[in-house]
Amino acid sequence: VPLLYVAVPVRDADRVIGVIRLALPLSAVTASFGELNQMMLAGGVVALAVAFGIGIFVAGRVTRPVVEMQAIARQMSQGQFAVRAPVRSEDELGALGRALNVMVSRLSEQIQNLEAERAKATAILDGMVEGVIAVDGQECILLMNERARATFGVGPRRGEGKPFLEVIRNADLHEIFRSGRTAGGVFRRELRLVHPVDRTLRVTAVPLRLAGVEPGLVLVIDDVTELRRLEHVRTEFIANVSHELRTPLTAIQGYLETLLGGALEEREHARRFVEIAFRHTERLGRLLNDLTDLSNIELGKVSLRLAPLPLRPVVDSVLELVAAKARDGQVTLHAEVSEAIGVQADHDRLVQILINLVDNAVKYTPAGGTVTVRARPTAEGRVEIGVSDTGVGIPRADLPRLTERFYRVDKARSRELGGTGLGLAIVKHLVLAHAGDLAIDSEEGRGTTVRVLLPASGAAADAQMSLPMPSAQV
Hints:
Elements: E1 3-12, E2 15-25, H1 26-77, H2 92-126, E3 131-135, E4 141-144, H3 146-152, H4 164-167, H5 171-183, E5 187-193, E6 199-208, E7 216-223, H6 225-260, H7 267-298, E8 303-310, H8 311-328, E9 332-336, E10 342-345, H9 347-363, E11 370-377, E12 382-389, H10 411-416, H11 423-433, E13 437-443, E14 447-455, E15 463-466
Parallel strand pairs: 9-11
Antiparallel strand pairs: 1-2, 3-4, 3-7, 5-6, 6-7, 8-10, 8-15, 11-12, 12-14, 13-14
Helix pairs in contact: 1-2, 6-7, 7-11, 8-9, 9-11
């Protein structure tokens, strides 16, 4: 039988006094080894299962927050700043989550501040009366405010990011753009725009220098149409005043020189020359008086004392004042005004309005003609006063300009009749000051009718009222 044999000597000091011998069959030893192997295998399996469970637990605790933070970071990159990273511990992952949340809060706050500043800047630019266009170095539009869009007819979804030449097709503006880039400094020029409406624009080009890119240009666009129109009106007004003053002064000077040259000795001619010079001085006086009245009205220096007035006595007094001129011109005056009609007006200014209208009608009505003053109440609580004549009439093309200062349909005849060209302009301003309306109808060869609409008496209480500033249109 195979045995496992072991011998151990027994010593007494340095002398061997015996030997202990043990023997065990190998089958018993082999059986013990099998049991030991089974126990070791079972222990290894248990240890592996415990290690796997511990690994799963640890991995879950570590990797789940990292995955969550990765997803949250992805959402933040997409602009969702309301999300927050979970903080479940005080370890490094918790510190990372807290730092990420603080960063998101600050980033969201900065973006809100930037959006608020951008909205403020946009509101300021859109509220400007000037158009603003910013163009980069590649000639692409960076910004257009609402005024610029309206000026050039650009829609709200067009402009930014597109080529300047594609968005605004105006050769003069592109020429200004190129000249502004070449100048390198502030550059100004005016241009005329005919679409979508006819207007005059003043364009100021200023360099736009942005860090790291080629310089662009900022175009500031002012609409100076009304300013240029007023300058033209002023120039025309000065020219007209100069002409109106020069004409009688030249005549007066000529007749006085003739008198000083010896015509004083001829009494018949001398008297006629003096009478002519006197008539021209009267014309100068009327012109200066009308200019003073018109200036005071436009500056608001004239006050109206509004009160209920019966209209018929005012009309009668005006016709009486003009009667002598009408008789000289063989013109018949008529009044068709009821005693019951009254208006809310300033007495003196109403007389001035009617004298201007009736006097004009008499001047331009030939002998045998008729001038009629009519009045009727309207459904709107106003009174329509009409001055009609059977005169030469006015061409339709001239009607819109009749109330302009110094505008005359027949300049030679107007001066011959002593007109200053300011009467209807004064009438228009006085009527507007009474909260009224003025309308003129005419047909060549058949006569003219001027209609004035004024508030009926009782429409307003007595009031002290200054004339309003007139509109810019003259």
